[in-house]
Amino acid sequence: MADLAVVEGPYLQQVLDHSYPVWHDGLTRAGYGRYYAAQVATPWGQGHLQRLALVEKGEVLASAKLYAFDAMLDGHPLRIAGIGALFTAPAHRGRGHARALVEQLLEQAAGDGVDLALLFSIIGAEYYSRMGFEVVATTDLSLRVIEDTRRGAPMTLVRAGEERDLADVAALGRVRAERYRVHLDRDRDFLRYAIVKKRLLAGLGPSGHRELQFFIAEEGASAVAYVVVTVRGGAWVLEECGDRDPDGARVGAILQVLIARDPSAARPAISAWLPAGFRPPQIEVLGGQPSPEIMMMRALRRPLPRLSTPGDLLFWHGDMF
């Protein structure tokens, strides 16, 4: 009979050894372990992230990360359990261990008062649909930054973001999120976790393989707009952004400044999840396609909200787990 256990000590080494070939993302095995350890050591990670597994006779059968998200639904608090990194040890595949683990995690979450479960599937929707999860549509947008014909930078004060800016960034996000039915409560600790996680992945990986950029527009010593961008080769992912201006003009200006740093360089391919109604005037949407990472939700204690329009949900690419 398999038991549910916290993944630590020898169990953690088993999970990291088995999952490393699948999810290393350019890290060494040692770097892969350090990457996870640093995430759970952040203030947000300590209280909101743990790894659990089904174990039997000292062996891990299947494991997953369990995230505890605070969120809002129609102005009321909502608790969400996020399930990520679901993995079955190679020697134990084909026996239903992953499904059994998910069901135990969700049963426990519901008993603890969690309202909804959330995950992202890279294997299609059918497997998780059989467990009661429903697809929430997300779109990868392809963007182009509109530039001056001289490829110069606008007169906007832009600098690298710092720890002291996170309170302003959280406030910007909170104001924008109020217009959407469902959104995460992205407080200062959560923002720090999200940025640190991506910086760790860049810093622990091969030199030049990936870069995380966090820039703000400043007025009166306060951050009034920001962008977080992952750079990999000739591609940028706009992980998240925010602006005191409803139309996002400062976000567009920041991107123009970043592009103008090297006027002769080829322009990057830029992708993003932009919330409905947020289209900075300096950005042209070239097209969109369904995200390969399929967002799926399952009701635990209350009916699943019907997210029938793009304006119902605010979820940034950088929040994906």
Give a topology summary.
Layout: E1 3-6, H1 10-23, H2 29-41, H3 43-48, E2 49-56, E3 59-73, E4 76-88, H4 97-111, E5 116-121, H5 126-129, E6 134-136, E7 139-145, E8 158-160, H6 166-177, E9 182-184, H7 188-204, E10 211-219, E11 222-232, E12 235-243, H8 249-260, E13 269-272, E14 283-290, E15 294-299, E16 313-314
Parallel strand pairs: 4-5, 9-16, 12-13
Antiparallel strand pairs: 1-2, 2-3, 3-4, 3-9, 5-15, 6-15, 7-13, 7-14, 8-10, 10-11, 11-12
Helix pairs in contact: 2-7
What does this structure look like?
This protein is an alpha+beta fold and 321 residues long. It contains eight helices and 16 strands. It has helices at 10-23, 29-41, 43-48, 97-111, 126-129, 166-177, 188-204, 249-260, and strands spanning 3-6, 49-56, 59-73, 76-88, 116-121, 134-136, 139-145, 158-160, 182-184, 211-219, 222-232, 235-243, 269-272, 283-290, 294-299, 313-314. Strands 1, 2, 3, 4, 5, 6, 9, 15 and 16 form a nine-stranded mixed β-sheet that branches. Strands 8-10-11-12-13-7-14 form a seven-stranded mixed β-sheet. A hairpin with a 2-residue loop joins β3 and β4. It is globular and about 70 Å long. The two termini are 30 Å apart. The mean pLDDT is 94.
Strand % is: 25-35%
- Total count of helical runs of at least 4 residues: 8
| Cα-atom radius of gyration | 20 Å
Supply the helix-strand structural class.
alpha+beta
| N- and C-termini, Cα separation | 30 Å
Question: pLDDT under 50 segments (min length 5)?
Answer: none
Total number of beta strands: 16
Largest sheet features: 9 strands, mixed
Order of helices and strands: EHHHEEEHEHEEEHEHEEEHEEEE
The coarse overall form would be globular
What is the share of helical residues? 25-40%
